[in-house]
Design goal:
single chain; 196 residues; mainly alpha; Cytochrome Bc1 Complex, Chain D, domain 2
Length: 196
């Protein structure tokens, strides 16, 4: 048993040493980098930052930053990582469903959060909040969900009804969702002592 502990401790020390400045691996993020990623976007839009955009504005950004991997019309590329973003409506029950923004994603706010954090692939997080709103507006427009000149912002984005919004089932595990909230609210209620 002592040998296992020693081996684990040595491995942990080696890992920490490998990440030290001596080897030049990585760097400490700047306060601005931390601030830009320190957001949580909920399905109801809570946490969305200020900004705005339209599909018309997003078209140019998409052409420069997204088209290379996702195709001019959102059809995807030849590589598996070059996911299609458009189409797929009505295919989710097929043996090979096409899961796209228009056929699969339940909330438009999730699309905003993903684009903000992970795109473009070669430089994630480089888009401003307004550019993210614009790109998401263009993606939603290509899927026929919003109009070309509809303005997306923190208020309007959360109101969009995605085609597959009701395609997901509630999580029935007792430790999450409505059951957990009910249980938590019951356990936090004050109990009246008997005889009062």
């Amino acid at each position: 048993m002592w040998l296992l502990r020693y081996t684990l401790a040595a491995a942990a020390c080696a890992t920490l040493a490998a990440q030290s400045p001596k080897y030049g691996v990585g760097r400490t993020p700047t306060p601005e980098e931390i601030r830009s990623m320190d957001i949580s976007i909920l399905p109801d839009g809570t946490g969305l930052p200020a900004g705005r955009g339209t599909a018309t504005e997003g078209r140019e950004i998409y052409a420069r930053r997204c088209q290379r991997c996702h195709g001019a019309k959102g059809e995807g590329g030849d590589e598996p990582k070059q996911s299609p973003l458009v189409g797929g409506q009505g295919t989710l029950k097929n043996p090979k469903p096409l899961k796209t923004i228009g056929s699969y994603w339940p909330y438009a706010t999730t699309i905003w959060d993903y684009v903000n954090r992970a795109m473009p692939l070669d430089n994630p997080g480089m888009l401003t909040y307004s550019q993210v709103y614009s790109v998401v507006a263009f993606l939603l427009h290509m899927n026929g969900i919003i109009g070309e000149n509809d303005v997306l912002d923190a208020k309007s984005l959360s109101k969009i009804q995605m085609p597959n919004r009701d395609g997901f089932v509630p999580d029935a595990r007792p430790d999450v969702g409505a059951r957990a909230e009910k249980r938590t609210s019951k356990s936090t209620r004050s109990v009246k002592p008997s005889g009062s």
